[in-house]
């Protein structure tokens, strides 16, 4: 979409406000709104100024002036505002016109440019499956003298005996019993359908939606794959629409990986493939799961660098409450055809050469998608360039239910880090692959690790409510 097309759209749709957005290091959208009457061609040339010192992990107050440069192809109409508003995603630049090397969207674009410079392929496709919960009520507090959380859902297994509904209608979803039931057990068909309608109006191509495994309103909506940066843009749009649609229904949505103890958490399984122009590079008929050597080496890079990758793909302390055995959590660093207990799964059902891809199942939606997708691509490219063979390193293929293996067999399988601090340790020890093509910089890695260490410490020093159950009567 050209600048003129955007300006025409503003007039045709009687747009009153133009909302310029960027994403911070933590993956959250930030925005500044300008009256549509103040937006002209110069806006797209000169950008929109903002204070970078107020964004965690960006710049100090002495270097706070920064510029959002609008990307016209990302424009879509906000479906939630009372005043007609056009949303436009932006890249971040310094006042002297240089790309800001801590801009997550800029990092994603550099990763795509690096792929092309290698001569391996021309584009990488990504498709995330981002799961979420829709709750009816959420309360939490963390203070000096108390700490708690409490969520509730009309679907929840713990509400089979509740009287406050004005007549309990039953049909609650059992723990781990929520995968694709029909109504009246699935109460959220209409809200998910409304989310999909709004996503399609905003330009996403929706493939399907369904209830997920956990009790208490876990769902999933799948949208069509696209190139790396466009998919990250689309994921932010996806999360924005889900959160605000839930709010319109008087509910609340969360992408938190593990909001409930004792049931499945929410992951973000990421499907990936590389193409050279119109030729898919991951398919070779007759080989294991019809995978080419390029695809196997890409898998090798993902699994070899996985401990460091996880600092970017699972960057929260809560991520590691999900990454435990027993809840379909992909903690085992092996690959397998169609096997959901492996960290890397190769889909094999109804797969064509164009549909041949790999699925990294470990990530979750606390990840900044621009950083996570860029890091995954760089790990895979490193595997291709160094011909890292996952078979030679003991990463599979393993076509067994890993959760049912003996302890001795499990001991032979490398696992994911056990905490955010362990993942950050791995990133500090193994980040050279991220520096290729100057996609990430050492400054970025150091700054990111410092920011995330602060989060880990904030959780580690606080008293956990369960410690009272364990130790109060010591």
Automatic annotation (TrEMBL):
Pfam families linked: Gln-synt_C, Gln-synt_N
Family note: Belongs to the glutamine synthetase family.
Location relative to the cell: Cytoplasm
Matching InterPro entries: Gln_synt_N (IPR008147), Gln_synt_N_sf (IPR036651), Gln_synth/guanido_kin_cat_dom (IPR014746), Gln_synth_cat_dom (IPR008146), Gln_synth_gly_rich_site (IPR027303), Gln_synth_I (IPR004809), Gln_synth_N_conserv_site (IPR027302)
Superkingdom of origin organism: Bacteria
Gene3D superfamilies: Glutamine synthetase, N-terminal domain, Glutamine synthetase/guanido kinase, catalytic domain
Enzyme class per UniProt: ligase
Catalytic activity: L-glutamate + NH4(+) + ATP = L-glutamine + ADP + phosphate + H(+)
Record key words, sorted: ATP-binding, Cytoplasm, Ligase, Nucleotide-binding
EC number: 6.3.1.2
NCBIfam families named in the record: GlnA
Entry annotated with the keyword Cytoplasm: yes
Occurrences of domain GS beta-grasp (ranges): 13-97
Domain (GS catalytic): residue spans on this chain: 104-474
Name recorded for this polypeptide: Glutamine synthetase
PANTHER family recorded: GLUTAMINE SYNTHETASE (PTHR43407), LENGSIN (PTHR43407:SF1)
Species: Paenibacillus chartarius
GO molecular function: glutamine synthetase activity
């Amino acid at each position: 979409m050209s600048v003129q097309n955007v300006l025409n759209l503003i007039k045709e749709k009687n747009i009153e406000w133009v909302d310029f957005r960027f994403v911070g290091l933590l993956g959250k959208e930030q925005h500044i709104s300008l009256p549509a009457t103040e937006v002209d061609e110069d806006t797209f040339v000169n950008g929109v100024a903002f204070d970078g010192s107020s964004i965690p992990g960006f710049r100090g107050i002495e270097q706070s002036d920064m510029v959002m440069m609008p990307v016209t192809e990302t424009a879509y109409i906000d479906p939630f505002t009372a005043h007609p508003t056009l949303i436009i995603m932006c890249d971040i630049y310094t006042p002297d016109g240089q790309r800001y090397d801590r801009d997550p969207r800029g990092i994603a674009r550099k990763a795509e440019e690096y792929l092309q410079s290698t001569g391996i392929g021309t584009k990488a496709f990504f498709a995330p499956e981002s799961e979420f919960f829709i709750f009816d009520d959420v309360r939490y507090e963390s203070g000096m003298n108390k700490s708690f959380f409490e969520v509730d859902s009309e679907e929840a297994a713990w509400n089979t005996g509740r009287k406050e509904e004005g007549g309990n209608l039953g049909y609650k979803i059992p723990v781990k019993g929520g995968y694709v039931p029909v109504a009246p057990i699935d109460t959220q068909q209409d809200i998910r359908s409304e989310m999909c309608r709004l996503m399609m109006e905003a330009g996403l191509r929706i493939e399907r939606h369904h209830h997920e495994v956990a009790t208490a309103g876990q769902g999933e909506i799948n949208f069509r794959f696209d190139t790396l940066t466009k998919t990250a843009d689309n994921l932010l749009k996806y999360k924005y629409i889900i959160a605000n649609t839930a709010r319109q229904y008087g509910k609340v949505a969360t992408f938190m990986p593990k909001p409930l103890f004792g049931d499945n958490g929410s992951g973000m399984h990421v499907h990936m493939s590389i193409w050279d122009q119109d030729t898919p590079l991951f398919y070779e008929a007759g080989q294991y799961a019809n995978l080419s050597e390029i695809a196997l080496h890409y898998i090798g890079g993902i699994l070899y660098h996985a401990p460091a990758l996880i600092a970017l793909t699972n960057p929260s302390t809560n991520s590691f409450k999900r990454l435990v055995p027993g809840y379909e959590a992909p903690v085992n660093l092996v690959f397998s055809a169609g096997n959901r207990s492996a960290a890397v799964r190769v889909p094999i059902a109804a797969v064509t050469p164009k549909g041949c891809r790999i699925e990294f199942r470990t990530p979750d939606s606390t990840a900044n998608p621009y950083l996570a997708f860029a890091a995954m691509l760089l790990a895979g490219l490193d595997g291709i360039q160094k011909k890292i063979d996952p078979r030679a390193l003991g990463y599979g293929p393993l076509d067994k239910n890993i959760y049912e293996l003996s302890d001795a067999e499990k001991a032979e399988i490398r696992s994911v880090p056990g905490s955010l601090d362990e993942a950050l340790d791995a990133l500090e020890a193994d980040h050279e692959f991220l520096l290729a093509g100057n996609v990430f910089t050492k400054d970025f890695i150091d700054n990111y690790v410092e920011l995330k260490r602060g989060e880990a410490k904030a959780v580690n020093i606080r008293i956990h409510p369960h410690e009272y159950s364990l130790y109060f009567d010591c």
